[in-house]
Amino acid sequence: MYERRPDNYDRWGIGYQQTRREDPRLARQIHAALGAARTVVNVGAGAGSYEPKRLNVIAVEPSEVMIVQRPRDAAPVVRAVAEALPFADGSFDAGMALWTIHHWSDLDRGLAELRRVARRVVVVAIEASVMNRLWLTRDYWPGMARDRRPEIEPEMVVAKLGGQTRIEPMLIPRDCVDGFGEAYWARPEAYLGAHIRVGMSCFQRLEPTELEEGLGRLDADLRSGAWDARHGSLRHMDELDCGHRLVIADV
C-alpha cells in the first residue's frame, strides 16, 4: 500500500521542473475554474505550475526540494502542509490543490483546511475506473491501479467538500507538455526514458521488480509492433479522457 507522506517529494522531486511543466490548455481550464477570484492559495504547489500570474497567489509547499525549483518570479511560498494551513479563516477567494491530494497524510483534514481558508475550492482528483483501463496500468504496471486509493475518487472529494459542487472532466492533449503519469498515453516510447519517469509519482512507488518487468514488456511490444496493433489508434487522437477530474466547490 502506498504511504501518503508530505515529505515524499524530498525524495522524488529532484529534477521535477524539467518534466512537470504547465500545459497551457489545462491551465486555461484550471484558471477558468477559479472564477472571479483575485486571491488564491495554491496548496501542494510544487514548482509553481498553473499559478495564474494575473492574480494574487500564495503557494504552500512542504518540500524544500520542490521549493528551490520554483522560478524566481513565482508566487511567494510558505513551507507548510495542507493539513495545517497557516492562514486565518476566509483568507482567500479560492484555493487550488492540483495533482496533490493523493500525497496528503490526512485527506479529510486537508480538504477541511481548504474549506476553512477559501470560499471556492478547485481540486484535481482521479476517477479510478477510467484510469485503470488505460494501457499503461492494465497491460504493463498494474501496481499503479488507482482503486487502491478509493478515497481520492472525485465523488468522495465532493462529499467531503460539500457546498455547491460540480465535476469537470480534464481531457489530456496528445502532446501534453506536463509530464504527469498519463501524459504520454499516445507516446509510449517516452516511458522507456528514466528522465521522463522521474517526475511521475506513479512510477516512483512501484516495486523495482514490477517497474523493470513492465519496461521490458513495453520495449518488446514496441519493437514487435504489438503495442501499435492493440493501441495504435491512440496516436491519431487529439485528446483522451484519462480519468482526471476538476472538482469545483463553492463552500
Q: Describe it for me?
A:
The protein has 251 residues and is α/β, with parallel strands linked by helices. It has one domain: 3-Layer(aba) Sandwich (Rossmann fold). Helices cover 33% and strands 20% of the residues. Strands 3-2-1-4-5-7-6 form a 7-stranded mixed beta sheet, sandwiched between helices. The longest helix is centred in the C-terminal third of the chain and has 17 residues, at 208-224. It starts with 7 loop residues before the first helix and ends with a strand. 41% of the residues are buried. Residues 1-10 have low confidence and may be disordered.
What's the short version?
With 251 residues, the chain is α/β, with parallel strands linked by helices.
Could you name the CATH topology? Rossmann fold
Strand order in the sheet with the most strands: 3-2-1-4-5-7-6
In the CATH scheme, the class would be Alpha Beta
Beta-strand share of residues: 15-25%
Radius of gyration: 18 Å
Name the CATH homologous superfamily.
Answer: Vaccinia Virus protein VP39
What kind of sheet is the major sheet? Answer: 7 strands, mixed
Question: Helical content, roughly?
Answer: 25-40%
How are the SSEs ordered, and which strands pair?
Layout: H1 8-12, H2 16-19, H3 24-33, E1 39-43, E2 56-60, H4 64-67, E3 77-78, E4 92-97, H5 107-117, E5 118-126, H6 128-131, H7 135-140, H8 154-161, E6 164-173, H9 194-197, H10 201-204, H11 208-224, H12 226-231, E7 239-250
Task: Give the key terms.
seven-stranded mixed sheet, alpha/beta, 251 residues, 12 helices
